[in-house]
């Protein structure tokens, strides 16, 4: 068997194999946990091996050796406020759009399904802002990127390490006008689990959810925020208390391949890597910002060229990899698989999702912690000044 099925659960779900197959005998379908995996029609497969050759797990994409490390904040604080951390993705995207290019990234569709989309004007960049803690669907996207590059267009592609590596092994060559940005990733829960949870929260609020932000900066800072249809209902709560989000933070619901991720290390696959600079207040206290600071790893000469172009729009300090990775373990090693992962998806797709949430996802919260986290950000600022 010389096809992608030999990969098994090590598959990262990038869908590059489906897009490279000359016989169209590979389709991407959800498994019993709702993760997307390749399915091969053996009657059409000719064992050409292209799907294996272009797989980012079975074939190594080019990596960097020694990234330059920075802490950075976008000076446009309105835009940065809408982003998850320091807002660095937006000026990079604007630089590509200014050249008549196209930007690819993860967005929610009308049903809050996370999919990669193409954006060709600044007014739509907001769709790509904020973290989506669920695996994004990239089916068909690599082909779109290839077509644009063939038409001599500039392209920015952002995604997790495996998605960026998937694109690079799909293209199988260096492309001068392609800028890749990999997002430092902990792991991804299944799209089906997230859909069921969105439906569950909609029922609780009395209507279909129309927006979902895992890390809104609106009220207490870094809250979970969701809204039902017509804006009639909304709820904001510290994300740590949310069953889905807390299960994510404790690595309970990730794709199996995430626990053996080959991209969770110093040798980055993108031209630039972006993440939250966790621990900034410890290592660079004067640069701390309650609305977030971006960690920027400049990995290639192309990445350096783009970073130099946007420097005048940023506040920047240099740092080092030891500080950057001290509180961001996925820059060193893949997330550890907990024992509960064996059964965490049991019953997630059943009729009684309410019980599933309570028994599988939820956890007990220390009352003191809950009170502390519920204090609004403005009150925290006042208390800090008093002390």
Main features:
single chain, 387 residues, alpha+beta, Alpha-Beta Plaits, 3 domains, eight-stranded mixed beta sheet, three-stranded antiparallel beta sheet, globular, disordered C terminus
> What's the arrangement of strands in the largest beta sheet?
5-4-6-7-11-12-3-13
- The termini sit apart by 67 Å
What is the tally of beta strands? Answer: 13
Would you tell me the structural class of the helices and strands? Answer: alpha+beta
What's the number of domains? 3
In round numbers, the mean pLDDT is 89
How is the main sheet built?
A: 8 strands, mixed
Helical element count? Answer: 14
The helix content is 25-40%
Assembly form of the protein? single chain
Question: Judging from the principal axes of the Cα atoms, what is the shape?
Answer: globular
Low confidence ranges: 375-387
Q: N-to-C SSE series?
A: HEEHEHHEEHEHEHEEEHEHEHEHHHH
In angstroms, what is the radius of gyration? 21 Å
Strand percentage: 15-25%
């Amino acid at each position: 068997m010389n096809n992608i099925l030999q990969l098994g659960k090590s598959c990262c779900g990038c869908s590059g194999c489906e897009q490279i197959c000359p016989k169209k005998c590979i389709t991407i379908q959800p498994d019993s946990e709702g993760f997307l995996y390749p399915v091969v029609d053996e009657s059409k497969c000719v064992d050409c091996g292209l799907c294996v050759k272009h797989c980012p797990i079975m074939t190594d994409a080019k990596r960097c050796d020694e990234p330059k490390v920075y802490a950075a904040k976008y000076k446009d604080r309105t835009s940065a406020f809408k982003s998850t951390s320091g807002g660095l993705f937006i000026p990079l995207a604007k630089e590509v759009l200014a050249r008549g290019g196209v930007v690819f990234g993860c967005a929610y569709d009308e049903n809050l399904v996370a999919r990669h989309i193409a954006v060709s004007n600044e007014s739509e960049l907001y769709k790509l802002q904020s973290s989506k803690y669920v695996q994004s669907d990239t089916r068909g996207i690599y082909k779109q990127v290839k077509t644009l590059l063939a038409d001599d267009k500039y392209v920015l592609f952002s995604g997790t390490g495996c998605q960026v590596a998937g694109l690079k092994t799909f293209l199988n060559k260096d492309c001068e006008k392609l800028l890749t940005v990999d997002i430092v990733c902990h792991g991804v829960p299944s799209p089906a689990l997230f859909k069921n949870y969105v439906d569950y929260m909609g029922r609780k609020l009395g209507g279909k959810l129309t927006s979902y932000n895992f890390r809104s900066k609106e009220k207490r800072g870094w809250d979970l925020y969701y809204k039902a249809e017509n804006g009639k209902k909304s709820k904001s709560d510290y994300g740590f208390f949310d069953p889905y989000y807390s299960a994510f933070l404790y690595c309970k619901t990730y794709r199996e391949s995430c626990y053996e991720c080959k991209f969770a290390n110093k040798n980055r696959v993108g031209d630039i890597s972006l993440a939250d600079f966790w621990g900034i207040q410890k290592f660079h206290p004067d640069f701390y910002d309650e609305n977030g600071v971006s960690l920027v790893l400049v990995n290639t000469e192309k990445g350096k060229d783009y970073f130099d172009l946007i420097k005048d729009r940023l506040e920047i300090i240099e740092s080092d990899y030891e500080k950057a990775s001290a509180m961001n373990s996925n820059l060193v090693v893949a997330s550890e698989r907990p024992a509960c992962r064996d059964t965490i998806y049991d019953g997630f797709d059943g009729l009684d999702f309410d019980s599933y949430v309570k028994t599988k996802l939820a956890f007990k919260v220390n009352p003191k912690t809950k009170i502390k986290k519920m204090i609004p950000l403005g009150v925290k600022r006042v208390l800090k000044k008093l002390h």
